[in-house]
Amino acid sequence: MKNIDSAFRYVRLFTIIIVIGSLLLDGVVFFKSYQLSASSQSKIYVLASGKAIEAFGSVRKDNLGVEARDHIKRFHEYFFTLAPDDDQIRMGIQKALYMADGSARNIYSSLQENNYYAQLISGNVSQEVMIDSVQLNLNAYPYYFRLYGSEKIVRPVSTTYRSLVTEGYLREVPRSDNNPHGLLIEKWSILENKDLKTVAR
Predict the structure, then answer these.
(1) What's the pTM value of the predicted model, to 2 decimals?
(2) How many other C-beta atoms can be found within 10 angstroms of the C-beta atom of residue 54?
(3) Could you tell me the pLDDT band of residue 52, with boundaries at 50, 70 and 90?
(4) Same domain membership, residue 49 and residue 72
């Protein structure tokens, strides 16, 4: 009886150890599989020319500064880079207006009323913007920015260089094909736009 009783205790102890070990192993396996699932969901693969390239997902805040600066630069390039071609001007301005609110449309309307674009076309004038720097404050929403740059205006007989300083705010909006950064420029204004020098051609 003593042997049966001690054998039963050993079997019971052995069974308890196996059950506890199995529960611990199940917990570790569940935790590791959850980690693997979470990490695999942050990865996507892009097929390019038959090759799979791994891409990583990220939170918007990780790249907000880069995206905001690029949004501001693209907007100014679309708005201020002009050729003596009505279709090119219309396409560039249309792209720019998708990236900003009514303040940009007001400036565009004012330039249009003053025949600025008609004079560019009739005078065979081209205009190019060069961005020097973009100051951006991401500590307060909406995000304030100030852009420093210059314009190169090429006429048939001369080239004029102008300073360009603008400011405004950025607000987050849903991304779209016309606004891939998901940002909208608000309260945009031109602080400085004056001639620096004119060089004969």
Answers:
(1) 0.71
(2) 8
(3) low
(4) no
